[in-house]
């Protein structure tokens, strides 16, 4: 099946021209996509560090040391460093940056690309009052954001970080069932996706996890379910 590419949705909170993205020359297609969205682009990580109040480390774990070694001489305590590098602890990043650097560790997830993400973040020891509000404000433009102790970041990775993949499998399974009983696949996928969306919205708006055999406001909600 062909997969339609996703287009990131801007929240409007920060103007695209006030965002700068850096990537190696071999990833020119990524930077071209950024340019098309109105972002500044560069191949020079130090340029990002020079121009930014908040620096996001959005690199794979093996590249963290190289990137931090490039930007460390430029960073000051007035800048906030936000890492979404998988599995790299705050202490590890702090050890690669100047003393008392303000470091935040984030575990986002892929639905952020459609502004429906779920992100957890942990604050480093040198962070200042108000830094958590800055990070929460930025992350909330692409979904739900919550501050947690760093010890919770790894469990969050397994839950909401990896969770979308399991939900995609659930949608596919429901859709396959619909196709087997005669539904067109496109319709089956839409119904399955909206079913998960609706169930999630019920949980969030009522504060109750609706189980198959549970009650809702004192009334049975089994509907067409089999007991």
CATH fold annotation of the domain at 44-153: Rossmann fold
CATH superfamily of the domain at 44-153: NAD(P)-binding Rossmann-like Domain
The order of strands across the largest sheet is 3-4-5-6-7
Q: What is the helix content?
A: 25-40%
Along the chain, the helix and strand elements come as: EHEHEHEHEEHEHHHEE
Number of helices: 8
Percentage of residues in strands: 15-25%
**Biggest beta sheet attributes:** 5 strands, mixed
Distance between the termini: 36 Å
Structural class: alpha/beta
Unreliably modeled segments: 1-6
Q: Return the average pLDDT rounded to an integer.
A: 89
Number of strands: 9
Radius of gyration: 21 Å
Q: Return the CATH architecture of the domain at 44-153.
A: 3-Layer(aba) Sandwich
Q: What is the CATH class of the domain at 44-153?
A: Alpha Beta
Coarse shape: globular
Enzyme class: oxidoreductase
GO molecular function: pyrroline-5-carboxylate reductase activity
GO biological process, one term: L-proline biosynthetic process
EC number: 1.5.1.2
Describe the overall structure:
The protein has 227 residues and is of the alpha/beta class. Among the domains are: 44-153, Rossmann fold (3-Layer(aba) Sandwich); 162-206, ProC C-terminal domain-like (ProC C-terminal domain-like fold, Orthogonal Bundle), CATH 1.10.3730. Helix content is 39%, strand content 16%. It has helices at residues 28-36, 45-51, 64-71, 90-96, 131-139, 153-161, 163-180, 185-206; strands at 20-22, 40-42, 54-57, 80-83, 102-107, 117-123, 143-147, 215-216, 219-220. It has a five-stranded mixed β-sheet, with helices on both faces. The chain has a two-stranded parallel sheet with strand order 1-2. The protein has a two-stranded antiparallel sheet with strand order 8-9. Helix 5 (131-139) links the parallel strand 6 and strand 7. Helix 7 (163-180) crosses helix 8 (185-206). The chain is globular. The model is unreliable at 1-6 (pLDDT under 50).
């Amino acid at each position: 099946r062909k997969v339609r590419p996703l287009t990131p949705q801007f929240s409007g909170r920060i103007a695209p021209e006030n965002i700068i993205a850096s990537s190696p020359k071999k990833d020119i297609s990524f930077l071209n996509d950024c340019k098309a969205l109105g972002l500044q682009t560069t191949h020079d990580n130090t340029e990002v560090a020079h121009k930014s109040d908040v620096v996001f480390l959005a690199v794979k774990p093996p590249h963290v040391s190289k990137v931090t070694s490039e930007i460390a001489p430029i960073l000051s305590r007035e800048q906030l460093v936000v890492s979404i590098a998988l599995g790299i602890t705050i202490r590890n990043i702090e050890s690669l940056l100047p003393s008392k650097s303000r470091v935040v560790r984030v575990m986002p997830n892929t639905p952020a690309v459609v502004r429906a993400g779920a992100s957890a973040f942990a604050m480093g020891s040198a962070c200042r009052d108000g830094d958590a509000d800055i990070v929460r404000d930025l992350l909330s433009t692409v979904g739900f954001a919550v501050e947690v102790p760093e010890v919770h970041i790894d469990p969050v990775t397994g839950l909401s970080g990896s969770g979308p993949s399991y939900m995609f499998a659930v949608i596919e399974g429901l859709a396959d069932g619909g196709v087997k009983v005669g539904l067109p696949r496109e319709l089956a996928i839409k119904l399955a996706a909206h079913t998960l969306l609706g169930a999630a919205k019920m949980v969030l708006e009522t504060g109750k996890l609706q189980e198959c055999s549970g009650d809702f406001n004192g009334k049975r909600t089994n509907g067409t379910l089999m007991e």
